[in-house]
Amino acid sequence: MTQPGVEPERITMNNLANCAQWAKKLNVSDEQLREAIQVVGDQATDVEMHLKGTRSTTNDERMHDLRNA
Q: What's this model's pTM, rounded to 2 decimal places?
């Protein structure tokens, strides 16, 4: 929950640098970020919670598994 008078952080999909920054911060691909925003909107906290709730493993773990398959 945000404090009264404080705007929540938003992820701006039409700003490539902003998207790249958030994708790196959240350890997701651009596509995963885009899909999450379509589901929950552009508030960064909502996107982060959605991504954490939908991933049982991290992308790093998935990439490791793919390399070792």
A: 0.67
Which residues are CB-contacts of 39 (< 8 A; sequence separation ≥ 6)?
50
Determine the Cα–Cα distance for residues 41 and 34; give it in Å rounded to an integer: 10
57: tokens are: 């493993």
Residue 5's alpha-carbon distances to 1, 8, 31, in angstroms, are 12, 10, 32
Angle at 17 between CA 55 and CA 2, to 5 degrees: 60
Per-residue pLDDT in tens (0 to 9) along the chain, 69 residues? 555 667 789 999 899 999 999 999 999 999 999 999 999 999 999 999 999 886 555 666 666 666 776
